[in-house]
Amino acid sequence: MDTLFTNVTVFDGYRAVPDCTVLVRDGRIVTLSADPDQPDVERADGLGRTLLPGLIDSHVHLWAPLATTEAAVFGVTTALDMFSPPEVAAQWGRGLSEVGPVADVRTASYPATVPGGHCTEFGVDVPTLSDPVDAEAFVAARIAEGAAYIKIIYDTTHGDELSIDEATLVALIEAAHAQHRMAMVHVTIAADAAVAIAAGADLLMHAPVDAWQDPSRLVGAVVVPTLTTLYNGFFPHKTGDVLDDRHLRPLLSQDSRDNLGQTWQIPDRWTYDTVEENVRAARRAGATVLAGTDVGMPATAPGASLHQELALLVHAGMSPREALAAATSAPAAVFGLRDRGRIAPGLRADLVLVDGDPLTDIRHTRRIDGVWIAGRRVDRDAWGAHLDARVTTTGGRPAPAGSEHGLVSDFADGTAETRWGTGLHAIAGANSKVELSVEADATAPSGHALRIDTEVGDQGGFTPAFAGVQFRTTADDADGANLTGKHSVTVTARSDEPTLVVVTVDAGFPPGKPPSCPSSWAPSTARTCCR
């Protein structure tokens, strides 16, 4: 059905236009000054509300099955993915039929990186390259997979050998441009950013964590600072902005709540103050700053995290109007999305209606009354009902047999259950070896112990050097097991060699300072990180 928004203030992507009557017909915006007496339309009263263009997140990784639905629920109608395998991209258009339309996604497919470089540590078989002569073939392969742009990892923070070199960087950018694709370059430090700009990069992904040496080089550059993920990395214990927000939390999926409870740590030789100053310096130099979250990283959630990003951009010196443009008209212009990012006649009706005035208080973007994608309303109530039903289904599921006493395994019968496995390090890409056996040990609490013999590969860099085992809570736990009554996991271990005991729950990130494993039996406990 067509929609008529009455008495509404419109942020058209550039400025606020008060007291508008916006008519949407056949998925397109017809006018901002319609006759209010329209027949056969769905009416949306905009009194005291602001109508925004659908929000655009310029840096995401949407690997969760319903990520595009959840993004849409929180007003992100377009997402620009910076690394997802093609098989993940294939699921983006599915969503939930009862909720309706999903966020529209563009992707880079796989990023360009070297063997052992960044993006090889996630347990995905990532194609790599190390020589400029391979650049054209790499770009062609990504385009064949559906890449709308090319993502390149140029990051020397772990050593030159774990980054593509400058010659390969230049070759990749030239190959991308020859195929009419923009080149997005991931950087961590300012020196790498300067090299990327000189090489012809179209966008810089991430604000550097150290100071710009010559901000004048940023004239005409485009930067996606990803303040959300950097803030979370600098302040790993301040992850409640989204998780505890009363406007956002009720519609967060359990997967998102779990991930928002995760943390990661940026080395303390750098500071978040420097990151914020780099954003200010980039803007003073004339760079375009876009809003992007790096969703998929710890402490992020599809859609919801963009509202944190907007608040962080304002804290870094942007006005609310500028921050809103960074998530609407600016990325639409940079990425050539001519049919969206603004509210104007003839454009696609990707719209977000919020209660209040986000041009005065940017946090009002969280007060969402409705979301429309190509004129179709996203049924946020249906999403909430889906979440409630899922909680009922999973929370009402009986706990795994034998879990009531809390014992996972004591190996007292001299055998190891088949749910113990050795593949954990392989998932993370570590080249290690593990063998499991159960042996009698009079000093062990049960008289038997699981013996873990390891050969840890010397990986270094982005690929973790570790060996590990994993335990599946059920024989088939693709949807998890109901262990809501349990709040921690304890492993009793000893080692004759220097060893760290890292206990994680649901493949979570390890604690910052894992304990050393002593030569005599001692327990190590990890609490679950979910809220």
UniProtKB/TrEMBL annotation:
Keywords: Hydrolase. InterPro entries: Amidohydro-rel, Metal-dep_hydrolase_composite, Metal_Hydrolase, Metallo-dep_Hydrolase. GO terms for molecular function: hydrolase activity, acting on carbon-nitrogen (but not peptide) bonds. The keyword Transmembrane helix does not apply. Residues 50-378 form the Amidohydrolase-related domain. It comes from the Bacteria. SUPFAM superfamilies: Composite domain of metallo-dependent hydrolases, Metallo-dependent hydrolases. Pfam families: Amidohydro_1. This is Imidazolonepropionase-like amidohydrolase. The lineage of its organism: Bacteria, Bacillati, Actinomycetota, Actinomycetes, Pseudonocardiales.
